[in-house]
Amino acid sequence: MQLSLSVEEACAATGLGRTKLYQLINSGELKAHKIGKRTIILKDDLDTFLSNLQSYASKNTGA
């Protein structure tokens, strides 16, 4: 079982781009860790981030 993801793997898993992921990391919204020069994101931290996202509210009322 994989416990952590590289930034590239997190991009592939979420569909988000590298720039957006680094913006989220730098703002503190998404936790990341450094091992030497490598940035990793723990799978649990990514799951927590995704589950805490605000739900999309449709503007279409069906009228």
What does this structure look like?
With 63 residues, the protein is of the alpha+beta class. It has helices spanning 7-14, 18-27, 43-51, and strands at residues 4-6, 33-35, 38-42. It has one domain (4-51): Recoverin, domain 1 (Orthogonal Bundle), CATH 1.10.238. It is built from 3 helices and 3 strands, in the order βααββα. Strands 1-3-2 form a 3-stranded antiparallel sheet. The longest helix has 10 residues, at 18-27. The chain starts with a strand and ends in a 12-residue tail after the last helix. 11% of the residues are buried.
Short structural description:
The chain is an alpha+beta fold. It has three helices and three strands; from the N terminus they run βααββα. It starts with a strand and ends in a 12-residue tail after the last helix.
